[in-house]
Amino acid sequence: MHHRIRRFLATSLSLVTTAITGAAFAAPPAAKAAPPATARPAPAPAPTAGELLAAYDAVMGPVNFEAQVRMVAYRDDGSSRDYTMKVLKKGDEKFRIWFAAPSAVAGQEMLRVGDNLWVYMPNLKRAIRLANRDSFQGGDFNNADVLRVNYQKDYDAKLDPACASEQAWCVELSAKSKNASYDRVQLWLRKADKQPVAGAYYGGSGKLLRRATFRAHKSYAGLTRPGEIVMRNMLNTKRYSIMAWESMNTGVNPPASRFVLDDMGK
Amino acid sequence: MRRTLSLLRIALRNVLRNRRRTLITLAALLVGVSVMVSVRGVLNGLQSALVENVVKGQTGALQVHRKGYRQNVLASPLTLDFESEPIAEKARAVPGVQAVAPRIAFGGMLAVGDETIFLFNQAIDPAAELKVCPKRGAAMHDAGKFFGAGGIEQVADAVLVTGELEKALRPAMAKTKDPAALLAPDRDGALSGENATIVGKVDLSGPGDRKLGIVRLDVAQRLLKMEGRVTELAVAVDDLSRLEQTKAALQQALGEGYEVHTWEEIASFVVDIRNMQNALLSLVAAVFMLLMLLGVANTMLMSVLDRTREIGTMMAVGVRRQTIVALFLMEAGFIGALGGSLGGALGWGLSSWLSADGISLRLPTSDVPYVIHPFVPVQYLAAVVAIAATGAVLFALYPAWRASRLRPVEALAGG
Fold first, then answer.
1. Which residues contact B344 (CB under 8 A, 6 or more apart)?
2. ipTM value of the model?
3. Under 8 Å CB-to-CB from A56, ≥6 apart: which residues?
4. Do B43 and A6 touch (CB under 8 A)?
5. A129 vs B114: CB contact, 8 Å cut-off?
6. Cα dihedral sign for B227, B228, B234, B236?
7. CB within 8 A of B311, min separation 6: which ones?
8. Is the dihedral of CA B157, B158, B161, B167 positive or negative?
9. What's the CATH code, domain A49-263?
10. Do B43 and A20 touch (CB under 8 A)?
11. A16 in contact with B, Cβ within 8 Å
12. Which of A46, B65, B243, B244 allows an S-S link to B69, with CB 3.0 to 4.6 Å?
């Protein structure tokens, strides 16, 4: 009897207290506003969004290529880190990267096959799965920015006259699936030659994550494309990374055997 | 003076005259006040358990960082680090500091087979950590395995993960024979990896990051290329009530380049929760009190109506109107004070009784059940009795005024 009363009292007092505690935890959900778009007059005859996206993929991710790439990541405290790597691409969805510098990452390798992405750690002597949206070597690109580049496959595109300018068309991309590395992307392509000049990348709930500037357009053995991308981190605006293509050869046809897990670390 | 005393005696006798009415009013006060006091007691117990769990299981009483670290805490920047031993040495020499535990907080990924998930890591030195956060041990499953003999010291690459992470990783763990790997950008931002063995689960002792890993400090220092360096010192103090003084002394000893924060500044959600709970309870208590006092007012009004002839007689023999007011106010005051005291005593008794065994309460924000020992401070009891008595007097103002406005002739005729 004694115990039952005590248990009853304990339970009822706990219930009152839990109710009070529970109510204290209920917080109002944060509202997110869409970024404002600046209205500009619509230009005259425009290519379709699909044509522009195809043009983007053609210069940013040619079917096969081998490239020597350098990335400099600048951080909040003003320090920077310089990476050099060899990138190899075959067909739609096969990528390899070999890091040569700095010494902390020399010997690391990356492999993409379709939606799968691995990094090979020389000290662990094995490959580890990575996610598309993870940052690429702690810089301001994510893995898919470097190792995917197939916007036609990942996004639906439509022209957006609202964000277009005098010199550039604006294409609005929305993710087809969760595998896409961003929920929404805005791309600006020059009207003169359909070369990409800028990009804005949004995450879930419409938050602006990164802004890219494509610059130093030049010809790589016949393929004209941006030579550098400056990627700004909009969540931490002191951080940015510059990726520069020192060479790019689209005339290669690497064997499929280079794009399997067993080939990593060899 | 003698007149006031005799008036008090009359008031007391009047209260005792209509026993049934007085008892009903007292019962209302008794129930209301005792529930209020015991809920306050349980909440006090809960709040002190919450604080203890946070201070002794998570934050430590004070924390030391490089200046500017807390501003960037979401990014948990590794570049705002410092040589651990010299600074810990200085901190230990400060009077009031009991123990110091070096830590690194860093974001990273835990990869098991085909599964790679993000997590927030805390790197700790197990021996030092237990001196600052002794409750950590209780929050780790199979605690003896990690912090006792043959514990985390021997499994060099041991990782403890929260239940949520463990659940997410379990299928992948069953499929692979490879050890897990901990990946993170090192101090310079380059991707780095170390082998890891998931050895157990850690329970969250309060609200916070649900994807948390705990690793050994030396492993993290190797992974992050931060040999001998840390981002945080957690500090235990001798006396929590002298926290501010110890904080000031520690800040003085470490100088400009470092910042010292109290657990209240770091776990500000605990303070927010506590304030919110207190505000809600005060609101509930105010409503309770109002209802009880309306009951008192009602009793007094009935009493006035009942005693019309008596009031008339008093006035007829020369008792002044203000004395009549005083008489009724005193009667109300008696009931309020008596009911408040009895209710307070009952509530205090209840919470002491419950405190003997402790109540086990599971909060939505914590994996570990809280064992609560309710307590009610004497000041709170005194305040409740005072509020009940003064409140009763205030609520009796109208009935008393009504009584004093009666006209003797009509009152004698029976109103």
1. B33, B34, B37, B381, B384, B385
2. 0.70
3. A151, A171, A187, A189, A194, A196
4. no
5. yes
6. positive
7. B304, B324, B403, B406, B411
8. positive
9. 2.50.20.10
10. yes
11. yes
12. B65
- Say if residue A36's pLDDT is above 50: no
Summarize the confidence of residues B64-80 as an average pLDDT. 80
- Answer yes or no: do B190 and A138 touch at CB < 8 A: yes
The type of residue at B333 is G
Beta-ladder partners of B335 = none
Q: Which residue has the tokens 């990014």?
A: B75
Cα–Cα distance between B52 and A113 in angstroms, integer?
A: 50
Nearest to A130 among B38, B116, B281 (CB): B116
CA atoms within 13 A on the CB side of A134: 24
Q: Which of B220, B185, B79, B165 is nearest to A119 (CA)?
A: B185
Nearest-Cα distance to chain A for B315, in Å, is 50
Q: Which residues of A touch B207 (CB under 8 A)?
A: 25
Q: Which of B111, B118, B364 sits opposite A129 (nearest CB)?
A: B111
How many Å apart are CA B302 and CA B315, to the nearest integer? 19
Nearest CA in chain A to B351: A10
Q: Nearest chain B residue to A80 by CA: give it.
A: B188
Structural tokens at position B290: 């109002």
CA distance B392 to B327: 13
Q: Does the distance separating the beta carbons of A108 and B42 come in below 8 Å?
A: no
What distance in Å separates residue B21's CA from the closest CA in chain A?
28
Which one, of A154, A164, A184, A158, lies nearest residue A60 by Cα?
A: A154
Read off the tokens for B220: 């993290």
The band of B142, judged by pLDDT with boundaries at 50, 70 and 90, is low
Which residue of A lies nearest to B278 if distances are taken between CA atoms? A20
pLDDT digits 0-9 by tens, B250-274: 999 999 899 999 999 988 888 898 9
Judged against a pLDDT cut of 70, whether residue B414 lies above it is answered with no
The full set of domain ranges for chain A reads: 49-263
CB B218 within 8 A of CB B156: yes
The reported pLDDT for the residue numbered A29 is 39
CB B67 within 8 A of CB B259: yes
Token code pair at residue B113: 């087979």
- What is the largest distance, in Å, between two alpha-carbon atoms of chain A? 92
- Asked if A105 and B284 come within 8 Å (Cβ–Cβ), the reply is no
Which of B109-134 are b and which e, b meaning 16 or more Cβ less than 10 Å from the residue's Cβ? Answer: bbbbbebbbebbbbbbbbebbbebbe
Give the dihedral sign, CA B281/B284/B290/B293.
negative
Residues of A in contact with B280 (CB under 8 A): 20, 23-24
Q: What is the DSSP letter of A43?
A: P
- Out of B77, B191, B273, the one facing A105 most closely (by C-beta) is B191
A33 touches A204 (CB < 8 A): no
- Which residue on chain B is closest to A15 by alpha carbon? B361
Q: Which of residues 64-83 of A touch B (CB under 8 A)?
A: 73, 75-77, 79, 81, 83
Paired with B111 in beta bridges are B116, B181
Give the tens place of pLDDT for each residue, B172-225. 888 888 888 999 988 888 889 998 888 777 777 666 667 888 888 999 999 999
Query: Quick one: tokens of B243?
Result: 């926290």
Identify the closest residue of chain B to A136 by CA–CA distance. Answer: B191
